[in-house]
Design a protein that fits this description.
The structure holds two protein chains of two kinds.
Chain A lengths: L9 E4 L6 E4 L8 E4 L3 E4 L5 E5 L6 E5 L4 E5 L1 E7 L6 E18 L8 E14 L4 E14 L4 E14 L9 E20 L6 E17 L4 E12 L8 E10 L5 E7 L5 E4 L11
Antiparallel strand pairs in A: 1-2, 2-3, 3-6, 4-5, 5-8, 6-7, 7-9, 8-9, 9-10, 10-11, 11-12, 12-13, 13-14, 14-15, 15-16, 16-17, 17-18
Chain B lengths: L1 E6 L2 E6 L7 E15 L2 E16 L2 E13 L4 E12 L4 E11 L4 E11 L4 E11 L5 E2 L9
Antiparallel strand pairs in B: 1-3, 2-3, 3-4, 4-5, 5-6, 6-7, 7-8, 8-9, 9-10
The chains are: A mainly beta, B mainly beta.
Chain lengths: 280, 147
Amino acid sequence: MIWAFGALVLLSVSALGEPLFVRRTAQMPEDTTVTGWRKHMIELKTGHFMFAADTGKKIHAIFRSQGLTVDCAKIEGNWVGPAQNATLETATMTGGVRAVFTRHSQNPGSSAVQTTTVTGDTVTFTNAGFALHVIGSVHMDSDDPGAQQSLSMAGTSADIELSKPHTSGRAVRAATVAGPVRFEMRGFRTDSSGNAPARLPFTLNGLADRALFDDAARTVTLVGNVHLTADDPNLGGDQNVDKETIYLAPDGSVDRVEGEGNPGTTTFIQKVKSGGGKRK
Amino acid sequence: MRVSIETQPGEATVFSDPMNQHAAWHVKWGKAQLTVVGQKPDVGTMQDVSGELFENGKTQRFRADEAIADEPSLVLTLTGRVSVFSAEDGTNLICDKVVYLAKPQLLRAIGNVTVKSPRYVISGINEEMAKADFSAIGSPDMFEGQK
């Protein structure tokens, strides 16, 4: 049964624009809150729902079990799940969408929260794969202060795959952003060029036609009319190439950066004794 | 001349068609205020009511403190500790007031609306419209075309 919330699921809808609460049990804190809606419809036997705000206004929805907070003009989708584990299965959000996903830091020694914020004109969410398809004025910011890493991409459309809630690891598992794309990556790298290893901050800024992030492969690939700047000369300084691949170390720091095409293939190795990198 | 008479317990069935083949609701009351205008008696406010709503072969049971039936318009208004229960899926609507529109088979629930089923509980709605079989609930304006 689609709305298989279990016997103790509590869904509370208040008056116009007032909060809607979803609780798994009466004893637990509310699992879901929706405020600011003007119209709503819930098909109780299928789990299909819709909430819409007045023109120019937005609803605010919190889906706590999935670590998801949404602001948008309208959200429509399906709520499914086995007893006591109800989840937002699919949703289409429109109208200045801002979706925020929170996870534990990928640093197990940190209690900090990892936050991924996705904005766009239209966002389609699918729980299978925890995938987002974003269209129009796309911006993705993923910040993990516990791991001292952040990743930002802006473009015209994007497909983003996030890690499941309550899992460890990086929040963004994969992202493909169509451009023109603006890219920024911040973090720390271990510099062993001195007498003792030191952690140094770095910032990479890039422009490209397309950007791809793959957490499993630990790569960020910028394709087409790539312009990359780094504030750390060990990471390559300024480059203009056709394709740039940033290889990440397991701890999320930059392992190396490889550029192809104009002005030629260039490899910059991070851990060198002096700045400037090594050119192939 | 207008005369009000208090009656003993009774019951009545209201049909939605002129051939009396399709029952819209059946109501039993503990007592009722009968208003007689001229020669024509009319049932006014029924008190301590219970009965059934009939919708596409399905039956929803109800109870309320009071009920007013508008037979020509096929509208039954229940007020005071209203409960409408669907035995088919165990869904129970509880609120301060229900206006049952038998023709479009919609329930307009007003005041402290709660919908409970074995799978979920919906509560705290001030005003909500629901299909009589509880297949959907929503803002009243979402049902504008169905009224």
